[in-house]
Amino acid sequence: MTTADDAAPTTGLIELGAAPVHLSAERASFAYDSRHIALAEVNLELHEGEALALIGPNGAGKSTFLKGVLGLIPTVSGSLSVLGQPPRKASRRIGYMPQSDDIDPEFPVTLRQVVMMGRYRSLGPLRWPGSGDRRAVNEALERVGLAEQAGKHFGSLSGGQQQRGMLARAIVSEPSMLLLDEPFNGLDRSNREALLELLGELRASGTSIIVSTHDFEIATAACTHVLLLNRCQIEFGTVDSVLTSEALAETFDHATADDEAHGHYNTGHGHYHETGFRGTELEGGARGE
Ligand SMILES: Nc1ncnc2c1ncn2[C@@H]1O[C@H](COP(=O)(O)OP(=O)(O)OP(=O)(O)O)[C@@H](O)[C@H]1O
Hints:
This protein has 289 residues and is of the alpha/beta class. It is built from twelve helices and nine strands. The strands form two sheets. It has a six-stranded mixed sheet with strand order 5-6-7-3-8-9, sandwiched between helices. The chain has a single domain (4-100, 180-285), classed as 3-Layer(aba) Sandwich (Rossmann fold). β1 and β2 (37-47) form a beta hairpin. Bound molecules: adenosine-5'-triphosphate.
């Protein structure tokens, strides 16, 4: 058995002319405690500039996978290499936008200060932000269309603006890889389109992206690859090859069967019915029909 930390560092270049490998998982399994595997047997490879959508019901393991890539939870079997390194060592080169944030809206902090938090890891313990850091913050705010709000109290911004601020924080250190947990939730159409455009620009500059989403339209518009999950890998491949009605049925129906059989995890089956995810996208919008 190998673990992430045992994985041999690679140069990231697998063959002449190939794009560098940014993420490589071989039978990787993740756990929060020693008794329960939260997500089992992931096998995939993602290259520079590619984008991966994580799709599965509630409790399927999407956030768990992101935490595994960040090295916040261990790879308990198999191996995971991130940017050619074990996950914890690569985390400085990763930008992360969590699903919900820990910033109390009452906390007296400006948007500019929130974005500067994204520079602290690269600043190190004994260095104050310099002009380069301030320039990076301004540029990140510019990219998400919030330059004019920089001095505002973070808590006074709208929900969509706060989300864009968190995205600015995730990209301010120019990460090689960007992880986004449900970034499109609650965004209106124009904010969604602006985010899609920004993700396209980041990919064109070589950033790889992993995005957890419940939205097929986003997966198709923003991503090159899809990982279907339900506590284990159901399927991985290019968007066109994976988003078939059969694979989606397996991902979501399997959830119901397991949930009923074992009653031990939240599949979110009802949620997908309620939102029309299965009723609309699976039947009408899925590929391969
Ligand atoms: N901090 C934790 N400690 C122990 N188990 C956890 C923890 N967080 C998640 N899990 C378990 O790991 C499994 C996968 O959960 P995860 O949050 O990764 O799913 P998800 O696909 O991101 O769900 P959602 O769409 O609801 O955000 C679930 O069984 C969940 O209960």
